[in-house]
């Protein structure tokens, strides 16, 4: 199944990032990843992907800062943005929503949960 949707994964845990990228590529998504939040921001502005998956806790810029910068740029403002994080508190989810996140996926998550959240947001925003 080919989706042709481009997904940017910004995740500093290399093993998790590689797993996500492999799953997405196997399902036919065009997936690119980085462990560097500043590079992720540059890639988002350069590639304008169909969806972004981003960890919250990262060195340099955290996920909230990445999202804020993307929402301030007319080119990236409307890209669906899903936080992925081990933080499970409602406070974290609420802060993500207030910053403009479209969704939240709590670590650890299953492949099915990952694919479902992606499909829901890509189909909704296309």
UniProtKB/TrEMBL annotation:
Modified residues (4-aspartylphosphate): 55
Response regulatory domain location: 6-122
UniProt-listed InterPro entries: Bact_response_regulator, CheY-like_superfamily, Sig_transdc_resp-reg_receiver
Signal peptide: none
Biological process annotations from GO: phosphorelay signal transduction system
Gene3D superfamilies for this protein: 3.40.50.2300
Keywords assigned: Phosphoprotein
Domain of life of the organism encoding this protein: Bacteria
Name listed for the protein in its UniProt record: Response regulatory domain-containing protein
Organism of provenance: Coleofasciculus chthonoplastes PCC 7420
């Amino acid at each position: 199944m080919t989706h042709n949707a481009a997904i940017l994964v910004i995740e500093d845990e290399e093993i998790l990032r590689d797993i996500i990228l492999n799953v997405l590529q196997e399902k036919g998504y065009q997936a690119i990843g980085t462990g560097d939040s500043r590079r992720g921001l540059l890639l988002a502005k350069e590639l304008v992907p169909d969806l972004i998956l981003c960890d919250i806790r990262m060195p340099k810029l955290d996920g909230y800062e990445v999202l804020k910068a993307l929402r301030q740029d007319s080119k990236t403002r409307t890209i669906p943005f899903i936080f992925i994080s081990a933080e499970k508190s409602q406070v974290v989810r609420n802060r993500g929503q207030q910053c403009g996140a479209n969704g939240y996926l709590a670590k650890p998550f299953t492949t099915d949960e990952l694919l479902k959240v992606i499909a829901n947001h890509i189909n909704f925003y296309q």
